[in-house]
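Form P-L/3: holo structure prediction, ligand zinc ion.
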Amino acid sequence: MIKSAPGLPPAATGDIRDTVEIMLARLRSGGDTAARDYARRLDGWTGPIVTPRSTIEAAAAQVPSDLKEALAYAHANISAFARAQRASLQDFETELRPGLIAGQRSIPVSAAGCYVPGGRYAHIASALMTIATAKAAGVPHITAAAPPRDGPGIDAATLYAMDLAGADTILTLGGVQGIAAMAFGLFGTPAAAILAGPGNAYVAEAKRQLFGPTGIDTVAGPTDLLIVADATADPGLVALDLAGQAEHGPTSPCWLVTDHEPLARRVRDLIPDTCARLGGTNADTARAAWDAMGEIILCDSREEMAQEADRIAPEHLHLHATALDWWQTRLTAYGSLFLGAETTVAFGDKASGPNHVLPTSGAARYTGGLSVHKFLKTVTWQRATDAALPALARATSRISRAEGMTGHALSAEARLHAHSPTTALRA
Ligand SMILES: NC(=O)c1ccc[n+]([C@@H]2O[C@H](COP(=O)([O-])OP(=O)(O)OC[C@H]3O[C@@H](n4cnc5c(N)ncnc54)[C@H](O)[C@@H]3O)[C@@H](O)[C@H]2O)c1
Ligand SMILES: [Zn+2]
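OUTPUT (holo model):
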């Protein structure tokens, strides 16, 4: 190991936890009035909360046509990928025994809430990722919320993307009040069954506290990237991909895993100048992220590199390596995999299609990222006809009596007698 730094995400501090708890309680009881009050106090916003069509149209007029074209390109890819996911989920019906029929069905949630963060960068692509995916899942009402920026409200391009992706209602409301408005169904919106989308520590904590009665996509920590590079990798491109993702924030971990020591040294030496190429505060952020969170892990073999990648379970896993088929089969823990030096995580972040809302902080050990599945409930159903009844009722009755559950046994046994409820009752 050439350089090491801890890679753990910052957990919500007690302060943030308490603040969010108090805010959610106030929002639950105070509704729209409390939300307006927070919008004014925290974001200086006194304009309309439900974004009027005229504002959306005015924003669209401000978005340059080349950016509109790029967003249309990205939106088409993200939607097509999400629709393919939806098509891969087949409802089914199966006869388990003669007369015993059961099935599975995917039903979209009745309403979803998609949060689009504000902040240092305009998270235009995030709007497409959450809203277009909910749309492809077939969610009948999508509420989206984003914090106001200066002046007219939500950033114009972000607002344009939210509308393009298919948001039914757009709330100019950030942070905890935005999340709560969607979850509680404020401002005339249907209460969201699931909340999706990234955000700052207040947003993440609000989602965490609401989880249970409301579903959530994930509790996102800082974004992370692991690059696996072999002797064939171009050190300049590896350094650029590492620095590029480090611009997300100073707490974003990035790892280079390699079995080629000259490459490790070359990349390490190139990083400072590569970060500087980002310019301004982006350069400072990337450099700070690399200095605090960057790590180069030197391995002896391809298999050891794969084990390191699986152990870390990164959000983004990028292979600058040969034998891509071997890697694709071997690797088992990542949010999204980028195969080969021709592609890059930036493609996935903005435009290529697979979702960019992905598990961070090692959560890729147990889950993948945002997909249509998060907006769908996979439910089951069953029916039984005469042919199935004797065996099914007998098995149920015996198990129930062994458990001491007489009521269950009686319900089962009643099905053994004729079909009419009265006969069953007399038996
Ligand atoms: N993991 C991902 O895929 C991904 C993608 C995009 C953005 N992000 C994250 O989104 C975040 C954007 O952060 P942001 O803060 O700029 O925007 P945000 O939209 O997440 O939060 C802004 C809101 O925070 C609230 N807030 C700020 N200070 C507060 C306080 N002291 N008390 C209560 N509420 C307060 C305000 O209401 C404001 O509207 C970043 O952390 C970024 O890393 C993550
Ligand atoms: Zn990124």
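COMMENT: Residues 14-43 form the longest helix (30 residues).
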